[in-house]
Amino acid sequence: MKYEMPDINLKALFLGVKGENTDLFKELLLKMVDEHVGWRQNYMPQDLPVITPQDKSSKSFQETADHMRSVFNLLSSKLRANSLPWHSAGRFWGHMNSETLMPAIIAYSAAMLWNGNNVAYESSPGTSQMEEEVGHEFAALMSYVKGKSWGHICADGSIANLEGLWYARNMKSLPLAIKEVAPEFVAGKSEWELLNMSTAEILDILDQIPEKMDEIKAHSARSGKNLQKLGKWLIPQTKHYSWLKAADIIGVGLDCVEEIDVDDNYRMDIDKLEAKIREFAAQQIPVLGVVGVIGTTEEGQVDRIDKMVELREKLAKEGIYFYIHVDAAYGGYARAIFLDENNEFIEWEKIDEVYAKHNIFSEPCEWLTKEIYDSFKAMNQAETITIDPHKMGYIPYSAGGIVIKDIRMRDAISYFATYVFEKGADIPALLGAYMLEGSKAGATAAAVWTAHKVLPLNVTGYGKLIGASIEGAYRFYHFLYGKEFKVGDKTIRLYPLTRPDFNMVDYVFNEVGNTDLEKMNKLNHDFFDQASYVKGGLYDNEFITSHTDFAIPDYGNSPLPFVKSLGFSEREWDREGKVTVLRASALSPYAHDKDVFEEYAGEIEKAMQSKLEKIYSEMEANAKVEVAVR
Length: 630
Hints:
The chain is α/β, with parallel strands linked by helices. The protein is 44% helix and 12% strand. The longest helix is centred in the C-terminal third of the chain and has 36 residues, at 594-629. This is Histidine decarboxylase. Pfam families: Pyridoxal_deC, tyr_de_CO2_C. Keywords: Lyase, Pyridoxal phosphate.
């Protein structure tokens, strides 16, 4: 009998702002603990307990138990005193973190009792199978071909990005290695042609000579040869800093990394990308790969992956090929909102109908554009994709992930440790042979697997959660837009940075009439100080946010149109060289609800007013001190 998915109610999936679902949480967690203990008792029932009643009644046992209770009292005190209220429905609008799914927390806690190490199947048969299943679910989420693609869980997006560059580096070097080991398969090709072979071409050749694979790999980039020949790794200005670390660690070096300008919507400028690739080609410098971002770290914007793919197809006709990696650590799970109940990518003409059927948004939402739609749709043309369950998967840390379009690519990076797994064995026994990490928690796999079972990776499950997050972000965006505050004789106005591509909302305060960019930057930094635990505290801080700087060394002049729209001159921008913005990653699973949001909106506005009054009061006090000193 087929199990029918219910109409998911998101409020049943989280512990709750005030712990409203504590009873359900305890019920499920206690059930899992009891069943684990029952398993221990049923395994070799003839074995007697080793902790006896006499042990438990001894003085040292009791004192040790009391000591443990005291330590947990201390732990609780530290956590309550020094943790941020990620769980709040409307107080926390800051860092990329949120309340996590209750089923994922329970699964993680339960699986820790079994202490699985997912590097080796013999150490964790249950959770290794779960990870293998999750990897295929990642691949299905990206619309990769079933049975020909793969994925796995890793610690975080930085590790996944490193693996993506590892794949690209090794794949790019294989034609040079083939020329050394089996030259007849690349006969007549120049070095430039070898370095511009497509991933599919390379894999098709390797399929013909499996007996030479180990020798070819020995001559590949893993030997340390030809690293300087592989070309440039192109990333947008909005890149995550992990790409610099990855280039350093993987050996291609920081000199191979080139940043491509972004436009005033903070998406990679595809025309600039093409110009840069052609500039390199004119110098016979190949492109190792291009990174597109789905959900930039600071802005939440979505690069035009579709235009990137179109450019690759265009240049391939001219003998230029580049590997594509999509860094969707933040936005990868959002692809679920584009998949119907059969996991098929929804046609553009039918998407509103499907959203209405599954109640993705509670009210009409202007979020989705054809540009965003096309960008997400084209993700399945990338060789590798980073995706982080511990971001938009709402799963506890640490849970990153990577998806590989062609499963054959694994052989380019594989290693086999005989004490852990046997070469030639079936997955998941070989899981650890195809990834960067060694020992890794089976509990993470259990948490992700369980979350995916509760919330399928399509509109019936995660699509609802992603939709709620986006709708909450747009409520916050509209709340901010044009809002004004009176502080004495000053008027301070709020300005969102850009229309969100996802659920990140960046914004600034500026005093009406102010044309001093340094003064505006200081105001926003002072506001962040008041709206953070550093200066504003925790328990009496009614609005918490985050901040960042868009500076010329990282962003070039891409912030200039925004800066000008606020009334600042280009000369002022050149003088200050940065704009300080406040940053809200809107992950709350509750703020999409109109009534909930409006209840908190009034409190947020009062908190903003209070913080601004405090800032200007301190400014006046400091000014008086300076006058007195003079």
